[in-house]
Backbone:
């Protein structure tokens, strides 16, 4: 304790200021030696005067909350203003999070990555870091940013030449300037196709951007106006935090500030660890997911990327005395596609679940990061040994890793009896993006975030899930206003925007229904094209596989309907409002379509003409419990309320028999339901197979290695990591050299 206090006092004056690298080395050494953040083993300031301590922190927290609620109304794109795809924070000089606003909290995990890069490369020594400088960061390798579509502004707060804090603002860009237009460069093969990628670089001084920075947005992105507005928004919020922090230090003193920020982080670390111990059951929670990369035939220019890849997402959660370990060993290796991640970006994903689960009753600081140990093996998709991999669409598969971890926490809490916290976890998001040119030659780019902002929440262990209220990446789910998105895409208008009947996972309790919208192309000008960067796919299983015998939520998909007779339907007032209605109208012959395509994976950029339709569906969630245990009246209620519309499907799924009365209302036949359920349970028994027999049959298939090309490559990559090889070969009783020479 005395050593730390002396060290802090020594650095209060500019004459004895330390470099950023000195500070980071001290932080790491003291934390490692003591097991406590910065060597703080006693919370002396908190214990001696708790009112002063809490008043100190409340002012810090209030500053970042105020930045969010004010800055996005100063200047912002619809994605930032309406949907709140933003965050502001204050960090220590080493980049450790002190306080964050509402928003996508896990993005704070990258703060130290960017600061440590600047320290290692001696930005403060070679170039100088001054109070009120402005730095831009969007690179995954040097800045830890998840993908270039997420843009960060760092503003150093300095006293007498020493960095004592960083004010940081983040938002999700509407368009990032990659070859594939939008926020996620879906078909990138390396970082040179990712769009505007910035390692930490100074773009302004004294809280004002340089003139050349505006030109970068104008020349390197398709939505310059939106991006410039967001840039001003981030800086406005940082300026508010910058001013408040200086006033805070004037009020409390620099020595108090330097000691208090260490105590705040150590306090939260201890509480997070306690939360983990009290809510998790010891053991190893394993999970896996898959994500298809369908590039074959679409990469004629890049021959080395002209292939399909099946990504294996492997994760385990292991509670321990220090908190929790997240281990991604066994996941696929990196590839020439846009779905790679960096360690910082992976942290952003897994801390979605960790923060929401374990920081609920304490300050959200770097304490959560200290309580979670991570293993991302070198060479894997989460820690590439190639510095030029693309990570422009990492969210499409890292959300699955988060769902594995988050789902493990949910099962752990269920085992402890915390029923209100136990639900089926997934992040089955959707979005579309693209570019266009108006008739007068004006070019624009866009992203529609709506099905990213709100998805269906998975079923609880005691009740049905709910639509739209869930977003794994934010505490405030919102799909934004349709009119706002229409204003950013001049040629697209909504014909419908609604919940999709039956679009959820079935179980004793069903998941929250997903969403669907129909977009109508009207006079597109010279050009309009869009693509899809969704997380979930209909061609691979959902991560929210359903718990205790339930079904997963169906994956997201989209439909392109080009060359239609929409004018005739408009005249009759019979336009489709969701994916189901479009397909039904087409099957009945009402809606004629020259080119109908249903996309269950990522699609290439699709060009749209007048009266073409684009339909998307996403946001479904998984169920909980055996569907045959569902209360029969709940099934009937879903039919009568339009939540589900296919009676025969529901009858076979839940074993429920119902009939319509003279008013057209479904009524339950209890006796017939009991009989049908008994028959279905007997059918299950008749079709069942002892596990020992199943294992022998499956083992023969595994031994033959008769997998298709994508699956075989996936296994070879995962088996190159020792932990997965040991688990796999042990379970199937295979030789240690299994598939190693192929």
Residues:
């Amino acid at each position: 304790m005395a050593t730390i206090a002396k060290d802090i006092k020594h650095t209060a004056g500019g004459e004895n200021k330390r470099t950023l690298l000195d500070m980071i080395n001290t932080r790491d050494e003291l934390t490692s030696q003591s097991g406590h953040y910065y060597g703080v083993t006693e919370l002396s300031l908190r214990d001696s005067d708790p009112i002063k301590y809490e008043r100190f922190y409340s002012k810090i927290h209030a500053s970042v909350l105020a930045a969010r609620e004010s800055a996005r109304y100063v200047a912002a794109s619809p994605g930032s203003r309406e949907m709140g795809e933003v965050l502001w924070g204050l960090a220590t000089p080493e980049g450790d999070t002190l306080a964050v606003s509402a928003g996508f909290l896990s993005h704070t995990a990258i703060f130290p990555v960017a600061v440590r890069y600047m320290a290692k490369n001696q930005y403060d020594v070679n170039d100088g870091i001054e109070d009120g400088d402005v730095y831009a960061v969007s690179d995954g390798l040097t800045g830890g940013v998840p993908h270039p579509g997420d843009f960060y502004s760092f503003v150093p707060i300095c006293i007498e030449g020493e960095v004592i804090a960083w004010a940081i603002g983040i938002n999700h860009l509407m368009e990032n300037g990659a070859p594939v237009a939008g926020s996620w460069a879906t078909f990138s093969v390396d970082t040179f196709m990712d769009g505007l990628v910035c390692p930490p670089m100074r773009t302004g001084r004294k809280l004002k951007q340089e003139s050349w920075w505006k030109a970068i947005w104008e020349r390197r992105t398709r939505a310059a106006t939106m991006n410039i507005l967001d840039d001003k928004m981030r800086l406005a919020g940082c300026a508010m935090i910058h001013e408040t922090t200086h006033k805070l230090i004037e009020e409390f003193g620099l020595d108090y500030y330097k000691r208090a920020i260490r105590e705040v982080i150590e306090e939260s670390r201890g509480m997070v660890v306690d939360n983990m111990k009290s809510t998790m059951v010891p053991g190893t929670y394993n999970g896996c997911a898959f994500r298809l990369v369908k590039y074959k035939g679409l990469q004629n220019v890049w021959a080395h990327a002209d292939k399909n890849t099946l990504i294996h997402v492997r994760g385990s959660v292991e509670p321990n005395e220090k908190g929790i370990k997240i281990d991604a060993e066994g996941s696929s290796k990196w590839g020439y596609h846009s779905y790679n991640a960096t360690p910082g970006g992976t942290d952003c994903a897994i801390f979605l679940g960790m923060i929401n689960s374990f920081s609920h009753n304490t300050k959200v600081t770097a304490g959560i990061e200290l309580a979670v140990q991570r293993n991302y093996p070198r060479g894997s998709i989460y820690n590439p040994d190639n510095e030029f991999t693309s990570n422009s669409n990492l969210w499409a598969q890292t959300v699955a890793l988060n769902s594995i971890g988050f789902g493990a926490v949910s099962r752990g809490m269920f085992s402890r009896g915390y029923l209100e916290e136990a639900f089926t976890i997934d992040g089955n998001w959707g979005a579309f993006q693209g570019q266009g040119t108006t008739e007068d030659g004006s070019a624009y780019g866009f992203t529609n975030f709506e099905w990213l902002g709100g998805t269906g929440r998975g079923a609880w262990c005691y009740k049905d899930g709910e639509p739209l209220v869930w977003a794994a990446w934010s505490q405030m789910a919102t799909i934004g206003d349709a009119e706002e998105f229409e204003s950013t895409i001049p040629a697209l208008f909504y014909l419908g925007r609604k919940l999709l009947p039956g679009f959820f996972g079935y179980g004793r309790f069903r998941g929250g229904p997903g969403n669907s919208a129909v977009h109508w192309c009207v006079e597109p000008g010279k050009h309009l094209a869009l693509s899809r960067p969704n997380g979930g796919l209909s061609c691979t299983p959902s991560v929210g596989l359903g718990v205790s015998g339930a079904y997963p939520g169906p994956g997201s998909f989209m439909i392109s309907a080009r060359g239609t007779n929409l004018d005739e339907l408009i005249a009759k007032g019979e336009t489709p409002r969701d994916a189901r209605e479009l397909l039904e109208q087409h099957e009945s012959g009402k809606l004629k379509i020259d080119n109908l395509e249903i996309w269950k994976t990522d699609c290439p950029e699709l060009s749209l003409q007048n009266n073409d339709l684009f339909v998307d569906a996403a946001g479904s969630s998984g169920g909980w419990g055996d569907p045959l245990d569902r209360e029969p009246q709940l099934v009937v209620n879903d039919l009568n309320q339009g939540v589900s519309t296919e009676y025969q499907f529901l009858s076979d799924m839940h074993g429920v028999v119902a009939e319509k009365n003279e008013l057209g209302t479904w009524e339950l036949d209890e006796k017939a339901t009991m009989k049908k359920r008994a028959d279905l349970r007997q059918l299950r028994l008749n079709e069942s197979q002892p596990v020992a027999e199943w294992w022998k049959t499956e083992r023969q298939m595994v031994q033959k290695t008769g997998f298709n090309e994508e699956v075989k490559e996936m296994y070879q990559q995962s088996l190159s990591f020792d932990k997965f090889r040991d688990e796999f070969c042990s379970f199937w009783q295979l030789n240690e050299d299994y598939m190693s020479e192929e």
